Target: small monomeric GTPase
Amino acid sequence: MSRKKAAKGKAVTNSPSAGSPTGKGAGKAARSSPGIVQMNGVVHPSRPSISSSSEFYDIAFKVMLVGDSSVGKTCLLVRFKDGAFLAGSFISTVGIDFRNKVLNIDGVKVKLQIWDTAGQERFRSVTHAYYRDAHALLLLYDVTNKTSFDNIQAWLTEIHEYAQQDVVLMLLGNKADATHDRVVKREDGERLAKEFGVPFMETSARSGLNVELAFTAVAKELKHRSIKDPTEKFKLQEYVNKEMKGVGCCRS
Ligand SMILES: Nc1nc2c(ncn2[C@@H]2O[C@H](COP(=O)(O)OP(=O)(O)OP(=O)(O)O)[C@@H](O)[C@H]2O)c(=O)[nH]1
Ligand SMILES: [Mg+2]
Model:
């Protein structure tokens, strides 16, 4: 297998349209971070983008983070990429950004190009344009925000409409660290995920709980599908169940 080079997220273009936000983040400042891409910027497996980075990879996939505004998509990505929590006031994402990370999955270098979408309603049409090229979707709700949980069904409808039929999908209940503010029980998340046949776990961008696992599980599934090794058996939910940690536990 030949090795490719991983591209860095580059600021190319982005022009968020004006309009009144309807999400929880309405009225908040908007942030546009370095990895902003063109509408047609797509990464295909085994086809690297032009790169100045020296990190090599074997296969590449596009993963999208979706869900209501303020559920913690940007924080989850920053935690995964940089191992840090974005403390301070909430700055809502404008349009769509991406960050790259190369993971070593059983000896195979898997590059994830992770696209962080804006949850605000006014950017929804921008997000729709990207679904088609996504290999995996991480759909987030916030365990301290019932509306974000109630909106999951609508997000799933949207995903079925715009994403590929065989897209790898995982439901994440984020902010699991916020025990005092929790309004959505873990069992409710589990029930919903079961109903829709989607793997599920709770995460915390603040503590790091299950963050690495969420991305690793998706990378393993994508690598498994891509390589189609008949000797290798991989079941996403089984892997997640085995590896995931509960709230209050020790490891991220
Ligand atoms: N307690 C706690 N707070 C979190 C966690 N993740 C994010 N937050 C907070 O939730 C707020 C929103 O986080 P973001 O990551 O910016 O939310 P987002 O989903 O990217 O929002 P949009 O960009 O508007 O779609 C911020 O104030 C974060 O500090 C978490 O795991 N635990
Ligand atoms: Mg964001």
Residues 7-53 have pLDDT under 50 and may be disordered. The radius of gyration is 17 Å.
